[in-house]
Amino acid sequence: MENPDQNNKNKPGKDTSSSSQKDGLETSINPRYRRQKRYSPDIEEYVEGISSGNRTMLSQAITLIENSNPDHRESGQKILEECMGATGNSLRIGITGVPGVGKSTFIESFGTHILEEGHRLAVLAVDPSSSRSKGSILGDKTRMQTLANHPDTFIRPSPASGALGGVAHTTRESMLLCEAAGFDIILIETIGVGQSETAVHSMVDFFLLLMLAGAGDELQGIKRGIMEMADLIAINKSDQENIHAAKKARIEYENALSILARDSPARKPSVLTCSATEGTGISEIWNKIKRSAEQSKESSRFSARRSEQASWWMHETLNRQLKDRFYNHPEVRNKIKDFERKVKRGEVSPFRAAEELLKII
Amino acid sequence: MENPDQNNKNKPGKDTSSSSQKDGLETSINPRYRRQKRYSPDIEEYVEGISSGNRTMLSQAITLIENSNPDHRESGQKILEECMGATGNSLRIGITGVPGVGKSTFIESFGTHILEEGHRLAVLAVDPSSSRSKGSILGDKTRMQTLANHPDTFIRPSPASGALGGVAHTTRESMLLCEAAGFDIILIETIGVGQSETAVHSMVDFFLLLMLAGAGDELQGIKRGIMEMADLIAINKSDQENIHAAKKARIEYENALSILARDSPARKPSVLTCSATEGTGISEIWNKIKRSAEQSKESSRFSARRSEQASWWMHETLNRQLKDRFYNHPEVRNKIKDFERKVKRGEVSPFRAAEELLKII
Fold this sequence. Notes:
The structure is a homodimer. Chain A has 16 helices and 7 strands. By secondary structure, the first copy, chain A, is an alpha/beta fold. A 7-stranded parallel β-sheet of chain A has the order 3-2-4-1-5-6-7, with helices on both faces. In chain A, helix 2 (about 45-50) packs across helix 3, helix 2 (about 45-50) packs across helix 4 (about 70-85) and helix 3 (about 55-65) runs antiparallel to helix 8. Mean pLDDT of chain A is about 80; it is low at about 1-30, about 130-140 and about 160-165. At the A-B interface, helix 4, helix 8, helix 10, helix 11 and helix 12 of A face helix 4, helix 8, helix 10, helix 11 and helix 12 of B.
């Protein structure tokens, strides 16, 4: 709408394809060349494909959004703009927990349970660390095989690299495309040790934190700020000889959360136990989430939170871009290290240094 | 140093004074006119006065820094630049807690104890809410009369208004001037319910949180983010029939803090009890702070934290200024509400809206 002159017939990546397809003749051609000749759908075809729930089209559109090539990204943006009217009709759930807590097994079990109720499920991951994502659960679809092979599921690992804000940014856009493709439950996974949780918390309706009993807080590595975001804490691996410890941990967490003040007592998170491998406690967690979503929809908190989140993302993007532009200015880059050194040594006050740097732009 | 052509003889507020003093003749003159003729020291006189510990000069220099008149602020900045070499030689302590926790009585008792050891004490306040500051403890010196009348103490209430960043910003500069004036213990008070705590935490060496036993967390209104910053939690009003409840609260808080994960186990805050009115527990708190400062000085964490803080303030100032400039741009102000409305309604994606707004500058 803000681009009335937008041409929906624009070809994304039009440099890669112009001739017609001659698949039968391509067997002996250099693979790179063959790839370049691959057919590229136009914006309208993408939008139609996504609307009809075509997972391949959805996947390709997300690739455009994640692309480092500005032309491809622009095409991705146009597809998203066309899809905006069909977004918003899902329940967005964030899931976090450190490696070892059993996230992949949990998502497999939890997702299967959700699919049994007839939902269509999309699983996205935000992992700002490229080295971690190589071994991450979602990078390795073989670990969520039931889900990966289910026709009503779409699984998408995080991009292998990129700035934190950038990754979360494209994840939010991917989420919107998934909604346009008719996925009505979206799980967004983070690894629970970084700063990506704030970004994810700002795009979901419900935030689930997975913990272990008796692992020691340092081992679990969960920052308290993350606990503060949680709508529900689930103590996983509550099975066999672990059951007693999990129940004890549940009570301890409940007490701790009661003692420590909350912004609002109404938002005090529940604590439940579950075993993803045995499938126990999973339906209780799902029921809790559903009930919470129903209640917040009745009180209109649901839509209010979404509006606030959209506004947050606009300002977040503005602030990030303003900083990027400033810090990437050649003269700023040139001088900032020197000022920083002087400030750290106490030779110049931080405010005077900032003033001098701002004079550059 | 970054102003080699700086003229130390510049007159701050030179528009208000040029003729010589004729005090004897001024008794019948209009008070406003008499005020304009008041003698204004120059930068060098300010610096000399501050260096010699003159509290009136210190107070006037802080007024220049807080002033809304750019010329006065510039004079304040020049004084600060000249004083930078004499700053840093204090222990900076942040004290927070909601109204009713007994902050003024605590600071009176704690400050008196510190003075008995031969220190010179400055007490500054950050209170971003102008309505609150009218009734704030530091706005009302009569409530800290022992300190207010002590020759080795300097008490400075917060400015009555101003942006949050702005108030904290001038508080940090005031703190540096106090150090240059030889105050070796600086207490910085906040009211414990707003966002000013992050700013204060970023200017102190030690952060003390005052709490009450059994007041209920909602009543206390302390945000969990503030607890996370605390180096020490002191449960005040541990006297008479309250002693038992305070001891119980101490154990509860200790347990809660142990259960909830910390960024670093070494930074787990201690919990102590005290009674500011009876003077019990005060020396234990002071000893704890001194020991903590000694330990962090030995491990060089002390200076490392200060360097990081100075750098934080430089970037914080840069980011705040970049935002201020953008959001105050006439065309941005004109269009942003409209974009925000569309984004909240889901008509435009937050990223597209940000992109359009950024095109303005």
